[in-house]
Write a structure and sequence with these properties.
The protein folds into two domains: 238 residues, no CATH class; 160 residues, no CATH class. The chain has 420 residues and is of the alpha+beta class. About 11% of the residues have low confidence. It has twelve helices and 18 strands. Strand 12 and strand 13 form a beta hairpin.
Length: 420
Amino acid sequence: MNAIVSYALESVFCGLIAYLIYRFLITRIRDYNYQRIYLLTSSLIVMIFPLINITVNDPYMSVYVFDPVYIISNSGKGAETHLSELAGIDYLLVFYLSISVIHLTFSFMNLKRVQKIRKQSSLIDKNEIYSLYISSNLESPFSFGKSLFIPLIYKGEDREMIAKHEVSHIIRNHTADILLLNIITAVQWFNPFVYLIKGKLVEIHEYQADMDVLKCGTDIIKYQELLLFSQFGVAPVISNSFHKSLTFKRFIKMENLKQSKAGVSAIVLFASAILLLFSVTSFSKSVIPDNSSGIPAIVSDQLFQTQKPDSVKTLPYDLVEVKPKFQGGDAPTMFTKWVAENIVYPEKAKKDSVQGRVIVQFVVDETGKVGNVKILRGVTKEIDAEVFRVVSKSPVWEPGIVKGKKAKVQFNLPIAFALK
């Protein structure tokens, strides 16, 4: 399975579990700080955890990834094969990175917009906590970092209530949360649960700011009227603002300002939730199917089937004391040369102008025999079958040695098929 697809599937599954835990467990504790910490932590887990490869069992398995082998054919007659250190283009990766760059570009544009608004506004107050700017061109109040922006139309008590609200965002450093979630969204733009988590975090920000304003003795009716009046304005999406879509939810929350502090039970619940998230997503790594595993293909009237390799705990290849050798020489050089000399570009693939990259995985065991051949990423059944055939018939290697004992070594070999 393509690494990007695998990462996306595991991330979405991880996001689903994280959101369900929040929805049905974390929200039971009426402590906004507690909920905020969970949302930030879970969003990081959703982004990072699928990148972690957790495997078990054989402690002596090491993994080595070869440079690509290129199989290039001129026409239907004969084939020219050679090695290349140039990697083929992974168009799915290019597409993924392009969307991520677009997201980051929009975030950068919003940062520039905040800078532009700051230059066009008048600084009327500055202290260690915040800088207050007033602008006649601004439609909606917002804050970013330590800068607080209020439209000129707000006067007197209204301006004071808005300032209290935005200062709460500044003191609680909500801007850092938003910047972090923007980065995570750029990486996880395909994951709907990241957007849900981000939305819930914005809600928590607004509830916290409302709570701080009302605790100062602000009249709740006047404050609610101000929220209704301000909901028609527009603020940069990267900032903290009044968030019109949350207005009525916030009204309901204002009626009950009582917050319960997260005690020992809440901490235990939080730890349990994180452990549950790790456990379930670890399990998902073993149940997300590989698109090439267990799928048979017919080759010369014979059936072949890729095999599931042993689940292993991998060691860095550099820790292998004596590296496996192939035909008496360096494995990365000699084996890739042997593969290039023995592999044949399938006629049907040439006729159909099929090109692409296969990634094959195999294990050299303690006796030097090649086994557990698996197509991690395929192109067509003909090309996959040819790769499987050649790697499976590999001559015996000289096994690697770890801690004085012969050990299994796992290899991943990319093979690119291209037509001139």
